[in-house]
Amino acid sequence: MSEITWYFQRLDWWGVLDIVLVALTFYFLLRLIRGTQAVQLLRGAVLLILVMVLVTSLLPLRAFGWLVSKGLPALLVAIPVIFQPELRRALEMLGRTGAALTPMPRESSMADIIDEVCSATASLSERHHGALIVLEATTGLEEYTETGVKVDSRVTPELLLTIFFPNTALHDGAVVIRNGRIVSAACVLPLTSSTIADRQMGLRHRAAIGVTEETDAIAIVVSEETGTISVARYGRMIRRLDEKRLRKILQASYQAPAPSNLSGLVSGFRDRLRNAFRNPQI
């Protein structure tokens, strides 16, 4: 307690300004990576560093301590490479006045979003209009939304039908939904490198599987040729769905409690799918 009092007695206005500037720096850095996969990378790096520091400081492990002391500089060198997309976004944001102060949209009810998406998907399936709708989960999709056209609108069946109407400017690509709003349309997603035996699965299906392999998002696909509805998550796809079964999958996905790790999340999602559907087609 006496040490804390001593520090406060020595604190002046320059010290307060110094603390505020450091806090603001960390705040804008964390705000920069919010909504991207860098959040998980940062958590893993911080956890790894804390474990190594605790082990080397509490236990007399000379060899491991030497390895940590030599490995930390290499980790610091790798940070600019790992966070290259986020650093690029930071430089771009410096050239946009007020970009960091943009308010976040108000979150809508997930039940309403599921109803709107399922209604639109059923209509698209009846009309054989190809579509790819991605629902963002905990892993941000900012790097993908930046490849498309910003929409920032409430989710409605009419808007989704308009976006995916054939030969329109935004129909070729993915729609990303975040916090109850359509963030962007015509987004480019990564394609899966896995071999797909079914020839009826085209680029939309490969993109849906690809984005769900890298993130925990949910991707909904409507086939342009057959009108078949499919849903993908964690690199697995269930096909030949109707509106009712699609709604059950989405409700089960968002009502499930959040597990503490990715393996638990995957197993929990698969268990719910097995209980709802016996023969998923991948």
Major sheet size, sense and barrel closure? 7 strands, mixed
Structural class: alpha+beta
User: What is the overall number of helices?
Assistant: 11
Low-confidence stretches: 96-107, 257-266, 276-282
Q: Provide the succession of SSEs.
A: HHHHHHEHEHEEHEEEHH
Give the termini separation: 62 Å
The CATH topology annotation of the largest domain reads as YojJ-like (1
Helix content: 40-55%
CATH architecture of the largest domain: 3-Layer(aba) Sandwich
What would you say this structure looks like, in words?
The protein is of the alpha+beta class. It folds into two domains: 2-101, no CATH class; 110-276, DNA integrity scanning protein, DisA, N-terminal domain (YojJ-like (1, 3-Layer(aba) Sandwich), CATH 3.40.1700.10. Helix content is 54%, strand content 14%. The chain contains eleven helices and seven strands. It has a seven-stranded mixed sheet with strand order 2-4-3-1-5-6-7, sandwiched between helices. The chain is elongated and about 75 Å long. Residues 96-107, 257-266 and 276-282 have low confidence and may be disordered.
